[in-house]
Amino acid sequence: MKRIMFVCLGNICRSPMAEIIFSDMVAKAGRSDEFIIESSATSNENVWNGTGAPVYPPAREILERHGLSSDGKRAVQLKADDLDKYDMFVCMDRYNVRSVSRILRGGDDKIRMLMDFTHRPGDVSDPWYTGDFETAYRDIYEGCEGLLEYFTKPEG
Predict the structure, then answer these.
(1) Which pLDDT tens digit goes with each residue over 52-86?
(2) Which of 24, 68, 110, 149 shows its CA 20 to 30 Å from the CA of 32?
(3) Alpha-carbon gap, residue 88 to 111, rounded angstroms
(4) What is the rounded CA–CA span in Å between residue 107 and residue 149?
């Protein structure tokens, strides 16, 4: 069982998109029983009294355009004890990497960037600031394809 946690700042755009896209890819590959797939935030700004915000409407809309549902997904915050619960923390950008390392108090060998699984490493485009959810979707989809390919390899 591979336990994957996708991470971004607020867990209402990029990381839930990655969780939903990757879950769909894994299901279509007939490998759902091999993975636990979640997402979380480095910030607590979208988590209120234990109830998180739903997926941001433009992110939800682009997922729906691609036939994917975000129903039931609510923002949660990454916690230090998640280090022992997950095998890999897949971050959307370099700022997330630093925050995840700080929150987990280590575990740097488990922290990766999603775009490192593509031919164009770097940050996933942040639609919160650009409003460009199509580019973010494309980046995330490509990264998830590479991540699934990574786990298909014998060493993955």
Answers:
(1) 999 999 999 999 999 999 999 999 999 999 999 99
(2) 110
(3) 6
(4) 23
CATH number of residue 19's parent domain: 3.40.50.2300
Residue identified by tokens 């390899």 is 153
Give CA torsion, residues 132, 121, 19, 2, to 10 deg. Answer: 180
- The pair of structure tokens assigned to 58 is 């433009």
Written as one letter, the residue type at 85 is K
What is the enclosing helix (H) or strand (E) of 139? helix 133-152
Domain, as residue range, for 60 = 2-152
Q: Cite the active site residues.
A: 8, 14, 126
pTM of the model: 0.96
CA distance 134 to 24: 18
